Amino acid sequence: MVPSVRDFYDGLAADYHLIFPDWDASMARQAAALGGVVRARLGAGPHRVLDCSCGIGTQAIGLAGLGHRVVGSDLSPAAAARAAAESAARGVGLPTTAADMRALPFRPSVFDVVVCADNSLPHLLTADDLRTALTGMRRVLREDGLLLLSVRDYDALRAARPASAPPQVATTAQGRVVTFQLWHWHEDGERYDLEHFQLVPDGDDWAVRIRRTAYWALTRSQLTDAVLDAGFADVSWHEPEERGFYQPVVTARAA
Q1: Using only C-alpha atoms, what is the Rg of the chain?
Q2: What digits encode the pLDDT tens for the residues 47-84?
Q3: Were 129 and a residue from 70, 98, 124, 211 both cysteine, which residue would form a disulfide, CB within 3.0 to 4.6 Å?
Q4: 115 and 51 Cβ atoms separated by less than 8 Å
């Protein structure tokens, strides 16, 4: 059985930054890219932003550093707590809370922007859960507010059905850490179980950390339809080469 999404991210919270060769540089690049999307759609701001899958703060800290009033929430209490600590260490204000994106604990219409980045939404494996999450994001957005999602390019991936993702290497004081993934596709061709491996230096040997979770490989048409059904309009897809973000970005307006 695949562990819960919360268990996966609770277990990964302390090591999540090791996915990136340079986490602070990645935060700055991602904030510049996503901040540019927000600025193009809503103006310079500052804006009230909810990052409802903030993890350890990769997008939220960067956006707060640009001057936006950002709140972070995440299913993982360990990840949300680390996001708060990391933002404080950088002199950035980022209140966080542990919350399921299907049950956001915020009043209606309080945010200008809701962010759900880094392929977080596809952890929801059913149409009902996807609808519940997107409807909740619409509820906490003001009228004409901006929804901003990022997901993997699943149209291409479902056609290729890769068995793994390329390894990533980060350099630490203890040595290099190698992160890679194995993907196990379900018979439906839409969902897959993921095994997340980290090889960490352990003296003259390696320690292996393995975590498991699952994803729904949502196509662009599936996600577009779900966003429209949840009460959004003006759905647009932005390619990495267009916006400088490492995944395709989806934007929509609260109709």
Answers
A1: 18
A2: 999 999 999 999 999 999 999 999 999 999 999 999 99
A3: 124
A4: yes
Quick check: 155 pLDDT over 80? yes
Q: Are 215 and 123 in contact (CB under 8 A)?
A: yes
CATH of the domain at 96: 3.40.50.150
At 85, list the tokens: 């600590």
For residues 137 and 204, membership in a common domain is answered with: no
Q: Which residues pair with 114 in a beta bridge?
A: 50, 147
Looking at the predicted structure, is the pLDDT value of residue 1 above 60? no
- 74-123 residue pLDDT tens: 999 999 999 999 999 999 999 999 999 999 999 999 999 999 999 999 99
What is the tally of structural domains in the chain?
A: 2
Tokens of 108: 């209606």
Token readout for 176 is 């290099």
Read off the pTM: 0.95
pLDDT at position 173: 87
Domain assignment of residue 159, given as a range: 155-215
Q: Are 191 and 216 contacting, i.e. CB atoms less than 8 angstroms apart? A: yes
Give, as one character, the DSSP assignment of residue 2.
P
Q: Give the ranges where the chain is alpha helix by DSSP (H).
A: 5-12, 23-42, 60-65, 77-89, 127-140, 154-160, 220-229, 240-243
Distance (Å, whole) CA 83 – CA 97: 10
**Do the Cβ atoms of 80 and 94 come closer than 8 Å?**
no
Q: Which residues contact 100 (CB under 8 A, 6 or more apart)?
A: 75
